[in-house]
Amino acid sequence: MPRSLPPLNALRAFEAAARRGSFKEAAGELGVTQGAVGQHVRVLEGWLGAPLFTRHNRRIVPTDAARSYLAGIGPALDRIAAATERFGQDDRAVLRVSAPATFALRWLVPRLARFRAEHPGVEVRLETSNASPEALGDPFDVIIRGGPDTFYGFRAAPFLAEERLPVCSPVLMDRIPLRRCEDLARHTLLHTLSLPRLWADWLARAGRAGLDPAATVVLDHFYLTLQAALDGLGVAMGPTALVADDLARGRLVAPFAGPALPARSYCTYLPEERANDPLALAFRAWLEREGDVGVRLG
């Protein structure tokens, strides 16, 4: 039997108007005139043989029958939209990755072209987050966080070691030389709001606890702190993994050979149901190869 379906444009206009409670707002969402929305709704009312809205002040309110109808067609329209978006992409492998923003910006994204070159048929969908793997609402194939930690339902594997050392731009060091730890008293020390003790811990380890710098600047994200160091604003506590490229290219310098503060490694966390997935394992193996290279500062 043929399907008995009303016009799609009439359904879209009704769904948008019912959801927003306004022909005007529905028109804005659909990119048509308010009159066009009203005309489509009238077509649907004629097709169904019943009114769909009543007016209350300046808002439109779906009738009880219309609300029931909306509950049925809304999800159907969502499925049509999703199927349309997926059309022609079913043969493309998708890898969903979650990583912290600073790590993604300074380490992962600059290297992703190499993974794409090895796996040209893979579409990497990267989202940034610091939430624990257990707290993520969306399913991911590979989650990158510090560790190794134990999370129920996930398998952890370290791939990139890290320490923390003072770093600054070579221009700043030429302007205000840094030969000994005591020279930090002439500099601005850059702090990150979420890591307030980095400088205090490093200075204590260097035997200079209580050193009073010329100034301090506190930034709310670690990537801002590193960018401030690159721009010559001051001296930052640089994570070796995330500044290795800048050190190698001379954009940053590490004025002191040590001491280095220990830091957590970067790890992959694979959900148990993806633990044997060939694509997730290939990405993890690639990260391990890149990480082995990335920890060497030369």
UniProtKB/TrEMBL annotation:
Pfam families xref list: HTH_1, LysR_substrate
- Keywords from the named record: DNA-binding, Transcription, Transcription regulation
Among InterPro entries, the record links this protein to:
LysR-type_TF_proteobact-type (IPR058163), LysR_HTH_N (IPR000847), LysR_subst-bd (IPR005119), WH-like_DNA-bd_sf (IPR036388), WH_DNA-bd_sf (IPR036390)
**Domain HTH lysR-type stretches:** 6-63
Q: Does the keyword Transferase apply?
A: no
Which family would the database say this protein is a member of? Answer: Belongs to the LysR transcriptional regulatory family.
Quote the protein name from its UniProt record.
Answer: Transcriptional regulator
Organism per entry: Methylobacterium indicum
